[in-house]
Amino acid sequence: MSMPELRSAGTSEVLDETGEAAVSTKIEGRSPWRLAYERLRKDRAAKIALGTILIIVLLAILAPVFAKILGHGPNQQFIDIGQNANGGPVPPSGTFWLGTDNNGRDLFIRILYGARISLLVGVLATGISVVLGVLFGLTAGYIGGFVDTVIARFIDVMLSIPFLILAISIAFISGASLWLVIGIIGVLSFTYPARIVRGQVISIKGREFIEAARALGAGPWRIMFIDLLPNVMAQVIVYATLLIPLAIVAEASLSFLGVGVPPPTADWGSMINDATGWYQYGYWWFLLFPSLALLITTLAFNIFGDSVRDALDPRGAGIYV
Amino acid sequence: MIRFLVRRVGQSILVLFISSIVVFALFFVGPGPSQVARTFAGRLGTAARIAQIKHELHLDQPLYLQYSHWAWNLLHGNFGYDYYKGQSVGSVIAAAAPATISLVIGAAIIWIVYGVFTGVISAVRSRSLMDRAFTASALFFYSMPTFVLGLALIWIFAYKLSPVTTFFPFHGYVSITSDPGAWFQHLILPWLTLALVTAATYTRLTRASMLEVLGEDYVRTARSKGMSENRLITRHALRAALTPVVTLAGLDIGTSLGGVIIVETLFGVTGLGWTVIQAINVQDEPVILGITILAAAFVVVANLIVDILYAVLDPRVRLY
User: How far apart are CA B192 and CA B201, in angstroms?
Assistant: First the structure.
């Protein structure tokens, strides 16, 4: 039955009972996802944050286009016009929109290329962490018993070893690279989604619909992925949006400490690290612009993540009003 | 209660044991015995020295014996010998610990007081202008990478406000015993950086927890009996709302005591985090190993203390 038919049927019923004109109170079935989407649409902060994220993504995609228009490559050094007499960076101008760095490279272009690294790490590391978290969380929560104990202790172990020391040591031993950084951040942060999923699964696995599925002969895999997973998906999505900014900051921190994405790749963390020796002497743009790029990105993701949480779980704290 | 205690302590020991195996494996098994001996010897290690270290570390023996020697020494408080610096790792850690403790305790006082204060005001005056300002600033500082905030504070206080620059030395650490005034001055900016970044979570947690408690029946009862709002909030609501905050504070302090890498590196506070970064830069493995295992122990012990406190305060916890 299509929608118009259904609506007309409803209207005729109203007419039959009251004999008056159709009342506009038609009841439509709306899924929780749709409700969440509608709440999100009314949230102004969420819209601004999402708009900002889309602009950042667009700028990252268009980085080569800007590089072409301006004629400045991300790693191209302009020793003649990009450096002052002392070999220091030059301030923002028509040629270099956000100034240059200490190597005479265009800061604006490098910030655009840096956005690619940040977004890539943010999304991929979060992806790894969420997939691992869901697998471990579902298994521990649903199977329970000994398996749960082993996974729970494993998570405790992972949480006890300091993230930065571990990450820096691994990066140092095996040589830093972009993919290693993504892998380290992704694998080391799976504990958070795993604990959330485990808790959720334990609280819903005793419900009737799971029992019904088991009575119908569904195996553990089917129950875990077809029956349980969709019910924890909302939490997983909330967590994923909040993990992205954490992953971005983790990558920037590693690069800031010099063990992240190796130079000369344009990266916000290493750009800020480069600027630490210069900004005090009047080269403020060198520190300010990469820092702002990083801050705006994490802020946008955090505000959006908060709004997604409020939209999916309106009974929750509702922290950001 | 005793059963719970025994079980929980046993769990902690197990977790620490596995952590030590993981850390050991990462540094000893991963790179291979010759490589380990070479890095232990430092950059200037001769072939004879490498052979000697290999023997001293029992690297010519099977893995389980290597581990048991290492763990046995660790249990006796012997973190090993730092061949690079020519002193025991224990004394390297003892020299660095006061700086980290000063940094963490000072910052923790600021972040707890500020976080709880703003959180309570936000909850009591929910949806007011103040609430919005506090929650927005919490989100702002929460999103701020630590090093960006630290650099911004250095820029503003140590460079831009040049007349007061001398009051904010932004680099180095002076021990409290040698000069308390200089100790305080050197730590102001590191304290602020660590506290502001951490306080954001406390503002949000206190606000959420306080809002929940304010909706409880006993609060309504107290209010209907004519209790003053101030007394109601401080005596009745706050006490109940603080439980999750205390838990988080315990865990955060425990984690930070293992070294606050970014803040210490940025401000030259010569604590455990700064030391471990120096050690990584020269591949000084005994020091990295020692600090890593110490940091893991702090986290496990903090978890244990928080859980036991919880069980004392709320008997229902002991059930599992």
Answer: 15
DSSP at A91: P
pLDDT at B239: 81
Q: Can you list the alpha helix ranges (DSSP code H) found in chain B?
A: 2-24, 33-41, 47-56, 63-75, 89-124, 129-143, 146-153, 180-214, 217-224, 229-231, 238-257, 261-267, 272-281, 285-313
Domain count of chain A?
2
pLDDT per residue over A20-36, tens digit each? 445 556 677 777 777 77
Residue A38 lies in a domain: no
Q: Which residues of B touch A302 (CB under 8 A)?
A: 139, 142-143
Together in a domain, A25 and A154: no
Q: Give me the interface pTM, i.e. the ipTM.
A: 0.84
Residues of chain A neighbouring B26 (CB-CB closer than 8 A):
166, 169-170, 173
CATH, residue A199: 1.10.3720.10
**Do A104 and A238 fall into the same domain?**
yes
Tokens describing residue B232: 């109601």
Q: Is B293 helix (H, G, I), strand (E, B) or coil?
A: helix
Calculate ∠ Cα B177-B183-B189, nearest 5°.
160
Strand B81-82 relative to strand B87-88, pairing: antiparallel
CB count within 10 Å of CB A195 equals 20
8 Å CB contact of B145 and A294: yes
* A18 and A56 inside one domain: no
Contacts of B82 (CB under 8 A, 6+ apart): B88, B89, B92, B284, B286, B287
In a domain, A282, yes or no: yes
Same domain, A16 and A82: no
Nearest to B108 by CA among B219, B207, B202: B202
Long-range contacts of B76-80 (CB under 8 A, 24+ apart): B79/B286, B79/B289, B79/B290, B79/B293, B79/B294, B80/B286, B80/B289, B80/B290
pLDDT band at B258 (very low <50, low <70, confident <90, very high): confident
Position A24 scores a pLDDT of: 56
Say whether both A14 and A68 belong to one domain: no
Top pLDDT among A68 and A172 is at A68
Interface probe, candidates B280, B283, B301, B305, chain A, greatest A C-beta count within 10 A = B280
Residues A61-82: tens digit of each pLDDT: 999 898 888 888 788 878 777 7
Query: Which chain B residue has the Cα nearest residue A165?
Result: B292
Least Cα distance to B12 among B257, B302, B244, B291 occurs for B302
Q: Tell me if A194 is assigned to some domain.
A: yes
Q: Which contiguous run of DSSP H or E holds residue B82?
A: strand B81-82
User: B23 to chain A: which residues are within 8 Å by CB?
Assistant: 161
A51: domain range? Answer: 44-312
Residue A236 lies in a domain: yes
- Considering the domain architecture, whether residues A205 and A256 belong to the same structural domain is answered as yes
CB A219 within 8 Å of CB A143? no
Are residues A273 and A197 part of one domain? yes
Closest CA to A148 of A89, A85, A91, A198: A198
Looking at the fold, whether A65 and A207 belong to one and the same domain comes out as yes
Give me the mean pLDDT over the A214-243 stretch.
87
Q: What is the pLDDT of residues A252-292, one digit of tens each?
A: 999 998 888 888 888 999 999 988 888 877 788 888 999 99
Q: What is the mean pLDDT of residues B256-281?
A: 89
